[in-house]
Design a protein that fits this description.
Shape: globular
CATH class: Alpha Beta
Mean pLDDT: 94
Distance between the termini: 11 Å
Strand order of the largest sheet: 1-8-7-6-5-4-3-2
Strand content: 15-25%
Radius of gyration: 16 Å
CATH architecture: Alpha-Beta Barrel
Helix content: 25-40%
Structural class: alpha/beta
Number of domains: 1
Largest sheet: 8 strands, parallel
């Protein structure tokens, strides 16, 4: 299981400290939510912050574009240091072209799905997709409760990828914490994004290690 703490839930006045905590806690990636105030209601982290963080950590940046018309931003975020970059199926007009642009830049190409979007919409695009980010909350706000029905979506996506012979990485974002991570991993999720469960804890580094312990109990 890969763990990607979401710095949107961290102290935004101390993001340098947040990425240091991620390294100390054994994180594999750093999840960065980019919101445009249009596709989702909020505005969040932009290019200058990602460039600054890139200089202060060796952990790969896993950037989630929650924006309308993501194509206009791809090159900038790839140049800023995104090692993994996901766009929303609901926002990308020409998804095949978008994913191939990300791959050609040397990054992993991902598709994010809102909770109500069925995984079956991705059947024909799986060969161009490195990972799928299943939203287990409605995107736009941190700290929302986990939507249990997304677990079944993960199972269906794992089965679909297996039948297609795809080495797809399945990620889940939203409400993943000590009470949900075992069922998430048990459904076939490879990458867990955790925000409040990490940065809302008294000891974020210890919280990351506990999440990994719980995940490993489920995965055997």
């Amino acid at each position: 299981m890969l763990l990607s703490p979401s710095i949107l839930a961290a102290d935004l006045a101390d993001l340098k400290g947040a990425v240091e905590l991620c390294a100390r806690g054994g994180a594999d990636l750093i999840h960065v939510d980019v919101m445009d105030g249009h596709f989702v209601p909020n505005l969040t982290i932009g290019l200058p912050v990602i460039r600054a963080l890139k200089k202060r950590t060796d952990l790969p940046m896993e950037v989630h574009l929650m924006v309308s018309n993501p194509d206009r931003l791809l090159d900038d975020y790839l140049e800023a240091g995104a090692a993994w970059l996901s766009v929303h199926w609901e926002a990308a007009d020409h998804l095949d072209r978008t994913l191939n642009r990300i791959r050609q830049a040397g990054a992993k190409a991902g598709v994010a799905l809102n909770p109500a979007t069925p995984v079956e919409v991705l059947l024909d695009i799986l060969p161009a997709t490195d990972y799928v980010m299943l939203m287990s909350v409605n995107p736009g706000f941190a700290g929302q409760p986990f939507l249990p029905y997304v677990v079944e979506k993960a199972r269906r996506l794992r089965d679909m990828a297996h039948r297609a012979g795809s080495q797809l990485t399945i990620a889940m974002d939203g409400g993943v914490g000590p009470g949900t991570i075992r069922q998430v991993v048990g459904a076939g999720v490879d990458l867990c994004v955790a925000g409040s469960a990490v940065f809302g804890a008294d000891d974020p580094a210890a919280a990351m290690k506990e999440l990994r312990r719980l995940a490993e109990m489920e995965s055997g």
